[in-house]
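Notebook, bench 3.
Goal today: get a predicted structure for Toll/interleukin-1 receptor domain-containing adapter protein from Eudyptes filholi so we can plan the truncation constructs. The sequence was checked against the plasmid map this morning, with no discrepancies at the termini. Length recorded as 223 residues. Pasting the sequence as submitted so the record is complete.
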Amino acid sequence: CRQERFRAGNRQLSSALPTMAGWFRRLLHKPKPSSAESSLDAGRSASSSPSSSSSSAKSSGSSPGTSLARSVCPAPVLASDINASGSARWAKSYDVCICHSDVDLELVEELVSYLEGQPESFRCFLQLRDAAPGSAVVTELCDAVQNSHCWVMLITPGFLRDPWCKYQMHQALAEAPMANGRTIPVLKDVDRKDYPKELRNLYYIYMALKEKSFRQIRDTIVR
């Protein structure tokens, strides 16, 4: 019986060998896909596998969010949107409060005239013009800060010498400790080393060309 089973196994193996040999020959002679097909297949697999793209981004040290932020431009803010009746703009009395020293009043008046003449018709608080006569200085400064969306700090040698300017600056920082773009420092005729240490975590506008700086201030207020 063992011999019969051994002979039967040999017959099955010998009959299977030609089939296996033919399979190997077909495998060896199978044509390779072209480079175009390979790249197409690779592109399909990459686009259909979010996990693979995210893992490759991690391995390369860049995040998908970074590349997205570079390619997507924020929509411009329109004057019609700002002036809409439902805009958050109208939650406060002023769009911007200008903090300055008395010696810089002429330059500040030019800035206020420029901002109020823009299509947005910015509402500016100018202390010598808008403060209520007979009111305490401290009360007026605090009210101006609290009732404005943002604050322009015109930092000049006169600003650094004026204790009321520093007081208003501290009130603005207390109102928005992390700033969120609401405090807008503008340097003029001040060395970088004299920049107030309270504002060191904020970028500033350096006023060299007046017209260019006015545009920068306007764009920052809009944002």
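Residues 2-28 form the longest helix (27 residues). DSSP finds eleven helices and five strands in the chain.
Flagging this for group meeting.
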